[in-house]
Design goal:
Elements (H helix, E strand, L loop, with lengths): L7 E11 L5 E5 L2 E7 L6 E11 L7 E5 L11 E5 L5 E7 L18 E3 L8 E9 L8 E12 L1
């Protein structure tokens, strides 16, 4: 392989929202990593959001969890799959900007996000912090994963 050639892969995560009941709803923006350069020595990072909006007065705290990867079946590592092949691209989602606490369901060393003081008709948003480790040997193409976001109160 020519070292000057840069393989680029488009990588993104699609988040599906799951409502706990009609009183509160959840929406999520995708985590889009853009182009991934396998020769770049730095991790690729991106963010998305989860927004909770209640049309009735909920209890003040709402817990947000994100399910394991559809392709790895795990929280760590999560994996995206090449849409036209079998290659996998390892990534993860975190609750903090330092990307140290894996966002999951609270089991197996993962964390959840708790939105405090949620009130009626005032949307609250949490940031999803994503990271792709560098130098993964993958084929060029489009990679993706599908995750479910759940809220509980």
């Amino acid at each position: 392989m020519n070292p000057a050639l840069k393989w680029l892969a488009f990588a993104g995560i699609v988040l599906l929202a799951s409502e706990a009941s009609a009183a509160c709803g959840v929406t999520a923006t995708d985590v889009n990593f853009g182009n991934y350069d396998i020769f770049d020595p730095a991790p690729l990072t991106s963010t998305g959001t989860v927004t909770v909006n209640c049309d009735e007065a909920p209890p003040p705290d709402v817990t947000i969890s994100i399910e394991p990867s559809m392709h790895s079946g795990l929280f760590n590592p999560r994996q995206m799959k090449l849409t036209t092949g079998a290659d996998r691209l390892t990534y993860n989602l975190y609750t903090d900007a330092g990307r140290t606490s894996i966002w999951g369901d609270g089991a197996g060393g993962t964390s959840v996000v708790i939105l405090k003081n949620v009130t009626k008709n005032k949307p609250r948003t949490a940031t999803i912090y994503g990271s792709l480790p560098p130098r993964q040997n993958i084929s060029a193409g489009v990679y993706g994963d599908l995750l479910t976001v759940t809220i509980l109160w």
